[in-house]
Write a sequence for this structure.
């Protein structure tokens, strides 16, 4: 178990008069399965970008885990899907990919197609 600690977080975009977050404090246990939901423009993606260190802010964010943004950017969409997945998750074993695809009811043949198959 690790904690993500947000303490007195205040953030606004340059040139904006309104804060996206004002003096926000909370903790998230990394063992939780948690989702942030809300209407467009309410700060969900901004919060993720703050966690990833992409913006300057006041307050503190401390965590002993790394953060990643999904969906991942794929530069060459003509590459084989399995190769793209190997870049994204280099430690994933083939059987794990097959298992995840089966949970999504996706045939494993998709791994041998170009990533951007139409």
């Amino acid at each position: 178990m690790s904690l993500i600690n947000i303490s007195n977080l205040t953030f606004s975009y340059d040139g904006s008069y309104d804060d996206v977050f004002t003096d926000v404090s909370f903790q998230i246990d990394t063992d939780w399965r948690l989702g942030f939901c809300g209407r467009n423009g309410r700060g969900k993606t901004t919060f993720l970008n703050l966690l990833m260190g992409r913006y300057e802010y006041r307050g503190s964010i401390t965590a002993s885990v790394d953060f990643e943004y999904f969906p991942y950017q794929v530069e060459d969409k003509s590459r084989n899907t399995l190769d793209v997945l190997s870049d994204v998750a280099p430690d994933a074993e083939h059987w794990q990919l097959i298992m995840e695809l089966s949970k999504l009811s996706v045939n494993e043949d998709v791994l041998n197609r170009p990533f951007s198959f139409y």
Notes: Helices lie at 44-51, 81-88, 94-103. The chain has two domains: 3-62, 70-118. The longest helix spans residues 94-103.
